[in-house]
User: What shape does this take?
Amino acid sequence: MLFWIMAIVSVAAASSMIFMRKAVYSALLLATVMLSLAVLYASLEAPFLAFVQVIVYTGAVLMLFLFVLMLVGVSSTDSLVETISGQRFWSLVAGAGFMGLLVFGIGNTTFGHAAGLKDANGAKGNAYSLALKIFGKYVFAFEVTSALLITAALGAMVLAHKERTSPKATQRDLSEQRFKSGAHPGNLPSSGTYARHNAVDMPALLPDGSASELSLNPYISRREQDVDRHPDLDGKTEIQAIAEDVEAVQEAQK
Assistant: This one.
């Protein structure tokens, strides 16, 4: 009974995963499929495969998928433009082959005799018998599969690697580019105010053009006004500079 319940859950989750528009929902449904497979392995007296399914695939591989989705962006959508010629045709061929394999597997389990895992597990349990098979009879196939996985990982890194044609820009180069662009080299002021000076004792201007005294520290605003404190004001006092700033903002708003 448990087998049929988890089979329905896994098939429903796998079918829903295909039609989801957001990738993060598909990843969560994939986690449901993997957990359902773990329960199916446990119900078929294969506890080692059940633990591997949870620890390796659900706990490691799927978490890697989720991290990649979070880095790329949850709301990002995939492009529907076909970049490889004949991609749809070969996708249909692969889908038809997979469908035939699925029908053959279902027919074999429905009309054939289920052997079970009692003979395969033996008297020493599933983990011992599975290790004996992998590192005994099927050791060559196991090592070839490992070599193929390593080769695929190295090939992916080689394809993703990009040779740098120019030296990496240093912090000095980036700073020079900011100043040579002619734009404001520092951070922009907060929304709702106009900051026309970088000094902390020069008040910001509100959208109506009036000076905001709340933008100044009260201890700084109590200092005496001195022309020599701001050589960038061209000999004007702070009060005169603020008055000119207010007039400039009000003229810009007209």
Observations:
- The radius of gyration is 34 Å.
- Residues 190-253 form one domain.
